[in-house]
PepSY domain-containing protein (Sphingomonas lycopersici), 241 residues
Amino acid sequence: MTRTIRWPLVARRFHKWLALLVGVQVLLWTLTGFYMVVVHIDTIHGDHLVRAPATRPFDLAQLTPPSRILAAHPDASELRLQRYFDRPVWRAQAAGGAALFDARTGQRIAWPNESDIRRLARIIYTGTGDIVSVRLLMRAPQEMQSRKPPYWQVEFAGWNRPTLYLSPATGELISRRHSLWRIFDFAWMLHIMDYGARTDVNNPLLRVATWSAFAMAASGAWLLIWAFPRRKKKKKKKAAL
């Protein structure tokens, strides 16, 4: 006796079990995607937390020529004129890191201490909250895994927990973080299903979940299409009776 395969029943069970397996992830994709669309990306980046650097001209006649700085720092790959506590400085970038030189005297400037970092953070930050903590980190926290320490972490008071990260060598702003960014980072982790580095958008787990969701949608669409002719046949039978 040949047993007929009931394809609608097979498709219905296949669809049901796939929905149980990937339904939660599909819901997470929807919720996290909604958050990433609703909250503007400029807000996530924290552009509103920092002031734009002041642009004022330099009196080049009073400054040490860059050749003198290069002679003292021959391994420098880049030399840039900028301001440090409202005074002109030469910033020399080398493989080992950055260094600041007084642009008037040519003397190397010592790394900023905690007091200097507090002052610099207050100059950079646009808010009015008090500084809650200042720490020199030698190990990267989760929210700064993409940046190699050391760096200063300056946290301000406020519901958004605004936090600035500054260079230990120059006091320059490295990055900024706040609660909306941290929620975004967590949502991004759930969205791409990379629970470690949160950067791999083509990991095996995501590929399996994506194809499973596609199969669930395809089987559901097939069941929907299959249901229409049956309804028409039932109506014809009732009309004949």
